[in-house]
Amino acid sequence: MAEVELRRISKMYERQQVVNEVSAIIAPGEFFVLVGPSGCGKSTTLRMIAGLEEISAGELLIGGKRVNEVPPSGRNISMVFQNYALYPHLTVKDNILFGLQVRKVSKQDQVKRLEHAAEMLGIAALLNRKPKELSGGQRQRVALGRAIVSQHPICLMDEPLSNLDAKLRGHMRTEIRQLQQELGITMIYVTHDQVEAMTMGDRMMVLRDGEVQQVGRPLDVYNHPANLFVAEFTGAPPMNTTQAVWRSNGAQSGVELSDDPSRRFLPLALGFGPQAGIKDGTPVVLGLRPEALQPLEPGAVADESRSLLVSVQGVEILGSETIVEFKLGDKLWKAKWNGQWPCRRGDLVRVGFALEHVSLFDSQSGKNLAITAGREKGEILRCVQ
Fold first, then answer.
1. pTM of this prediction exceeds 0.85
2. Which of 34, 313, 333, 381 is the most buried (most CB within 10 A)?
């Protein structure tokens, strides 16, 4: 297994910069996910790692060796594409073995590797079929089989599940993750689906407009988003946000909700305030995850500084959970509750939350005000020192 290191790699197309100084260290045997919206540069970054795109600036190291000018065939990697890239005139068996035949691997070794991959992927009965006779999931397994038999220590995947239906995507997510763990290979996986990133990755890198927003373990990224973009990109439904103003009179500090007609004041615990560089009167954005907003029992004594009386605007009962929509000022917020709640539009409901679940962001930069610059950028800086 080999470590992959990206040292401020960038990509320019004429005068347009599509990837800007992306840095990361990907450990051997790690499942590392590049995630972000369409056009953020994640596939371009993957193609630079593969050698399919020239690196405009920066360095790429594989196993400690600089490989910027090394062709794809010399990088000891395999790749699974979004469209699977199967030869339509070849059988499943020949598609899987094509790369080995080009490399002139012995026929005995080819048979051994084929049998191992076919058994692992459950495609032994499909070896004599052509790609047109296969379903989407079966084609995906064939593409994976081709990567497995190559026995390269690094496998790159570029949105391999985007052409599958939702149920099959969920099944293939589990299969790919188990396969990676069984083989112990380093997997670098590109997706626009934050659910895939959260459920599959050991670590994830969130990209936006070609720039790194945050690198970390999925739960760390989810619970401690570095900025407002990451907060609203991760989670389903995403984080609720509203405009506010920081108020501090010495004895009590908190936020005044700008979007609330009553200008409600919410006192906040330590972790915010002067120690986070927030001055009185600073415009901020307050964020709460939908699952942090929980219904309070009728008649229960409610702390108004830690609860909201809201009018239900819409309800989605999903079987195991219920999504309740309500307005806070002019913003539509969502709460996620376990179970089935027969709320109706117009019902008044009081929802409570814990102050430790509140996030505050700078209204101009979007930076999370509870995370210092060193902590936010720490992982990124360490890998380019």
1. yes
2. 34
